[in-house]
Amino acid sequence: MDYDLNPTITVEVAELYEVRFQINNKKFIYIGLDTKCNPKYYGSSLIIYHYKRIYGEKIFTKKVIERLENIAYKQLCELEQQYIKETKKNAKKNKEHSVNYTGENKANVNAWQWMDI
């Protein structure tokens, strides 16, 4: 399905999730959303893609944060951004590295302009 940020477009089921992994004593965290609810999907981050190719899936732990039904795609994106912001804030405290990018390639669903996390 081709989603846009039209508030009338809804998703039947979706998951917001976190992925954690560790490389050379460095801890990483990623927050994402999945409208297919695929347990083997670890996110669109190039960093995750890279390490998955090198080490395989065994280094990743995925935890579903929220499972949502019949939610507007715009609202789903807003929730994802809230989790990303909170995780980025807490990552430094927990000596983790967030692999969520700053959002320069994703629209800010609140302001309809480029996101600034």
Which percent range describes the beta-strand content?
Answer: 35-45%
Shape, per Cα inertia axes:
globular
As a percent range, the share of helical residues equals: 25-40%
Instruction: Please give the order of strands in the largest beta sheet.
Output: 3-1-2-4
What's the CATH topology name?
GIY-YIG endonuclease
In terms of per-residue confidence, which ranges show pLDDT below 50 for 5 or more consecutive residues? Answer: 107-117
Total number of helices:
2
Order of helices and strands: EEHEHEEE
In the CATH hierarchy, the architecture is 3-Layer(aba) Sandwich
Number of domains: 1
Please provide the count of β strands. 6
Give the class-level CATH name: Alpha Beta
Describe this structure in words.
The chain is α+β, with helices and mostly antiparallel strands and 117 residues long. It has a single domain (12-102), classed as 3-Layer(aba) Sandwich (GIY-YIG endonuclease). 26% of the residues lie in helices and 36% in strands. The chain has 2 helices and 6 strands, in the order ββαβαβββ. Strands 3-1-2-4 form a 4-stranded mixed beta sheet. It has a two-stranded antiparallel ribbon with strand order 5-6. The radius of gyration is 14 Å and the shape is globular. The two termini are 27 Å apart.
